[in-house]
């Protein structure tokens, strides 16, 4: 069974008399433990697609299924559990809480879920991203690349089935970007996470098993590694 399936998905936004279709008739199946990159220019629908895949938004028509269940059919409580336990998020601008230490940022998802030994799991993920020595530091004391690695550790601390990364290298220099991409690739192979990444960079998309080229809300082509 695919980890994620989109069946004839379209998304239309309406503002008064204005109506804009951001995604049109998207169909795609994503297997567990793979990396899929959605590649295209700004405004092509990449972020909207990730929001649908992460159950943060819902299609106007069609279905988004995670592990065979349509997200639009889930109750609010089921959606909360889904987002908290099965999906991790990484953003272009890190979204770390500035008043929390690195360790506290990483363990936060587990604390919110009431998981015991949250600090132990957070330290394990920090070791994996190579930032154990920064556990007591605060975000303002880190470089952009380090902050993104902390964000990846936080996204994976709950061992989610799906990791959604929206332009994860868009705010990084080349070296830091390569480190982040290597971690995303390893997250799939080591932890079995299904990685969904939006990017405008062909170099970033090169790590993917599947590259989905988007233009004006439509799939132009799908390339397999």
Automatic annotation (TrEMBL):
SMART domains: AAA (SM00382). GO terms for molecular function: ATP binding; ATP hydrolysis activity; transmembrane transporter activity. Residues 4-224 form the ABC transporter domain. It comes from the Bacteria. PROSITE patterns: ABC_TRANSPORTER_1, ABC_TRANSPORTER_2. InterPro entries: AAA+_ATPase, ABC_transporter-like_ATP-bd, ABC_transporter-like_CS, ABC_transpr_LolD-like, MacB-like_ATP-bd, P-loop_NTPase. Keywords: ATP-binding, Nucleotide-binding, Transport. Gene3D superfamilies: P-loop containing nucleotide triphosphate hydrolases. This is ABC transporter related. Belongs to the ABC transporter superfamily. Macrolide exporter (TC 3.A.1.122) family. GO terms for cellular component: membrane protein complex; plasma membrane.
């Amino acid at each position: 069974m695919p980890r994620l399936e989109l069946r004839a998905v379209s998304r239309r936004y309406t503002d008064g008399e204005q109506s804009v279709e951001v995604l049109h008739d998207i169909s795609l199946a994503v297997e567990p433990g793979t990396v899929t990159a959605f590649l295209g220019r700004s405004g092509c629908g990449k972020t909207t697609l990730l929001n649908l895949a992460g159950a943060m938004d819902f299609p106007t028509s069609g279905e988004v299924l995670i592990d065979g269940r349509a997200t639009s059919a889930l109750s609010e409580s089921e959606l909360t559990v889904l987002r908290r336990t099965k999906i991790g998020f990484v953003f272009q601008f890190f979204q770390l809480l500035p008043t929390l230490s690195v360790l506290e940022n990483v363990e936060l998802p587990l604390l919110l879920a009431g998981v015991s030994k949250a600090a132990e799991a957070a330290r394990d993920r920090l070791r994996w991203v190579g930032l154990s020595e920064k556990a007591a530091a605060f975000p303002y004391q880190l470089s952009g690349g380090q902050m993104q690695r902390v964000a990846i550790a936080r996204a994976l601390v709950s061992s989610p089935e799906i990791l959604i990364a929206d332009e994860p290298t868009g705010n990084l220099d080349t070296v830091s970007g390569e480190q982040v991409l290597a971690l995303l690739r390893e997250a799939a192979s080591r932890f079995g996470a299904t990685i969904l990444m939006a990017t405008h960079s062909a170099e970033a998309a090169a790590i993917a098993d599947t590259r989905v080229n988007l233009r004006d809300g439509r799939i132009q082509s799908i390339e397999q590694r």
